Amino acid sequence: MLSRVRRDRIDEFGKVSLRLNGQLHHIGVGRTHWRTHVLVLVHDLEVRVVHAATGELLRELTIDPTRNYHGTGAPKGPTRPQKDRVEGS
Question: In this structure, is residue 17 part of a structural domain?
């Protein structure tokens, strides 16, 4: 059972890095939180990313040891409104 607390800052791409069992994992939190100081709470493979000043939970996940990037689950790219299409004749 491995438990630890780590202080870090979210990078410009919205990720925080964490080394577990000799493997570096990148955890996506979101670009809106870049440069935010966080606490990374680790218990075995369970990880929580908490805002250091407010205590707000920013991300909670279970690390998959077979992957090194754990995205936010949001779709890539900006969302655009769909244009109304008129079918051609």
Answer: yes
Count of domains forming the chain: 1
- Rounded Cα gap, residues 29 and 71, in angstroms: 8
Collapsing DSSP to helix, strand or coil, 33 comes out as: helix
Interval 31-59: pLDDT, tens: 999 999 999 999 999 999 999 999 999 99
Average pLDDT over residues 14-40: 95
The number of CA neighbours under 13 Å toward the Cβ of 66 is: 0
CA atoms within 13 A on the CB side of 82: 3
d(CA 69, CA 28): 8
Residue 62: give the domain boundaries: 3-70
